Amino acid sequence: MAPVDNTLAYIDQGSFLGLRALGRGPLMQFTWIYDRPVDIDGLRRFQRNLGRGLLGRRIETSPLPFGRHRWVTSPGPADVAIAAAERSREQVWDWADERVCVPIDPQWGPAWHIGVQPLIEGGAAVTMVASHSVADALGMSLAIRDAVLDETWDLGYPPAGSRSRRRALSEDARATMRALPDAARAATASIRIARAESGDVAMSIRTTGAKPTTADDHPVVAPTIAAYFDIDEWDRRADALGGTSNSLFAGLAARLSQLVGRTDKGGRVNLSWPVSERTEGDTRANALTAVMVNVDPDMAPSNLSAIRAEMKSALSALDETSKKLMAPLPLVPFTPRRLVRRLEMMVGSVGHPTGCSNLGDLHPAVNRPDGTDADHISFRLLEPQITTGILDRMGGYVYLASGRVHDQIFVTVGAWIVGSPNTKQSLRAVFERAIDDMKLSGIVERAASQSASSDGPGAPRPR
């Protein structure tokens, strides 16, 4: 049997190099809330199974400065982390914020972990946090599904340290030489793209560094809130507006962005939309591309047909967009860390995009980490090591995520608005206004405390 190619895809190496260059990287968090105690034995079985699937790996770096990194096997943490003291329901997201600050490292491990918080009211919360360098959102949801269903996957990766340094140097040097023609073509493509988009690049360079730096620059978990909607009511509202579930999510994102002032010069909103390219048996951590959809937020509350058409048009051009995004990737191993840090600020500044991640219909098993259905599930993306000053210099951000399972649609919103209070209370207030504008009815989680770094939603609030 031929050995498995455990070389990281260029996009995955880029994700990892970005983490190392910036000293931080995006983490994904699924959180389940049960109105009853959870089955700890079931959760431990779930954890063991996760270590025998797509998440059962970590990154081993090349000894060459420009070498390709490789996957090695890693079963993950030995056990779930069970909180010793009970907390109230309204403190669930304080605890969830704390869990995203528990160290994670895709190279040294653990690349993910699971925590359980017993609740005073008799229920419990379960949360799973993973590095985006090991799996994207869809990859993580599929890993969860397989682990719940006791379906394991032997990736065939070698153990860490299985190559001697001499062998690693020799193999990686030959691989680098073979990759030089691809890198040359990528350099040509990058120059062509830079010339075509010179206006946006120039604007991003001027914008970067122009944002005020917070006087008290400190690490922060940016405010995030969660809401839950009945699937049938959501779909009826989408139909009434001439849209789909996806375009209703886009319309809600556009309206929220308008309310917080995240629009372009024409008053329109740029929605940055990741699109999965994951196929059966795909072992890439980040099997995705992205499209940008420019929409009119004024139309969202009354008619989604224009937004739906804009999304359809963007998706029809996906092949060309994907080629443009992927063309420079062979240059990733040769990209200096200083340039990576500069590029992050530039990319975040162009068009003030609002991130939208719609996981769509999730497998029912994704809602059953202990083997039984949770009452609520949500997903969010965070960077816990980021600071207030960095967020201000980036011009802030707005990010929404959504998914459908267990007769509910969850929507999470994370945001940092330069010059605003940036508490979960203030974010919830503007999100509730966006929900009201879209004539939606759901449950918005309450925040237990005021600070951006430690508060979180608690007892549900009907809307």
Write the layout of secondary structure elements.
Elements: H1 10-22, E1 27-34, H2 40-50, E2 57-60, E3 70-73, E4 81-82, H3 92-100, E5 112-118, E6 124-131, H4 137-148, H5 165-196, H6 198-207, E7 224-230, H7 231-240, H8 245-259, E8 269-276, E9 288-295, H9 305-316, H10 318-326, H11 337-349, E10 354-361, E11 376-382, H12 388-393, E12 397-405, E13 408-416, H13 424-437, E14 442-447, E15 457-462
Parallel strand pairs: 4-5, 8-10, 10-12
Antiparallel strand pairs: 1-6, 1-11, 2-3, 5-6, 7-13, 7-14, 8-9, 12-13, 14-15
3D structure, described in words:
By secondary structure, this protein is α+β, with helices and mostly antiparallel strands. Helices cover 36% and strands 22% of the residues. The chain has 13 helices and 15 strands. The strands form 3 sheets. The chain has an 8-stranded mixed sheet with strand order 9-8-10-12-13-7-14-15. The protein has a 5-stranded mixed sheet with strand order 4-5-6-1-11, with helices on one face. It has a two-stranded antiparallel sheet with strand order 2-3. Helix 8 packs across helix 9 (305-316). The protein starts with 9 loop residues before the first helix and ends with a strand. The model is unreliable at 201-214, 345-349 and 454-463 (pLDDT under 50).
Structure keywords:
5-stranded mixed β-sheet, 13 helices, 463 residues
Concise account of the structure shown:
By secondary structure, the chain is α+β, with helices and mostly antiparallel strands.
Give start-end ranges of low-pLDDT stretches. Answer: 201-214, 345-349, 454-463
Structural class label = alpha+beta
Main pleated sheet:
8 strands, mixed
Strand ordering within the main sheet: 9-8-10-12-13-7-14-15
Give the ordered list of helices and strands.
Answer: HEHEEEHEEHHHEHHEEHHHEEHEEHEE
Q: Helicity, in percent?
A: 25-40%
> What general form does the structure show?
globular
The Cα radius of gyration reads 22 Å
Strand content: 15-25%
